[in-house]
DASH complex subunit DAM1
Amino acid sequence: MTEFLDEAETLQTNMEGIKQLSESLATFNESFASWLYVMNMNALTTDWIQIRLDSLNKEQVRRDELAQSFAIVNLDLEKHAREAAEALQRAQAEEKARMEREALQAQAQAQADRTAMTEMTEVDTTYLANTTTATTSTTNKSALPPKKKPGAKPKMTAKERKERSMELERIISCLPLEFRGSDPGLRRNMETVIEGLMNAPNNTVKLPDLIKPPDLNQARVNKCLIALVNRKAVQKDNSTGTVLYRWVGIP
């Protein structure tokens, strides 16, 4: 029994020693693992050399110079932006003034067209009255030979016809779009009116002399004459009490 107790005590002592050894190994393992982790992290880091004071001052000076350069660039950009904004405002003001001038010119043109149309209407009324009188007097003067109508187109050579065609093309190209081909009938009417003015004595005619029904009626003649007067190719004169149209031409 005594031997058994001694053996049991020895076994207990050995077990305590093994337990202490296990704790020591666990502590070692933890410390060794920490050391390995520190070594691994150290391998991933970079040793930075401590900068010298004079180098630090130079770096500060360089940064100050860069900041000053950036400030100058910013001032230049702000100046250019202000100049661009002022130029844009001037352009907008000029565009607005131009549009106002065009609107005023359009109003003046419309007023001139209305005035010309009113005068045309007065001429037409006079023409109708004169036509009635002329019809009455024609009965009494039937024996007289008929007068040649002013503005009749004389016979021309082939060269003259070609030159006249080129001149008509040049004149019509200066007129509004509606006379330049969008309405072929109106273009033919304009050519007839221009030729009537060119062929008339002293290049001067009255409105009734240009009427050639049914194609070239009174309204078409009025429209063509208004366009020519506005283009300053024809000069209107009513100083004698009768409205006359004189061909001036387009330079």
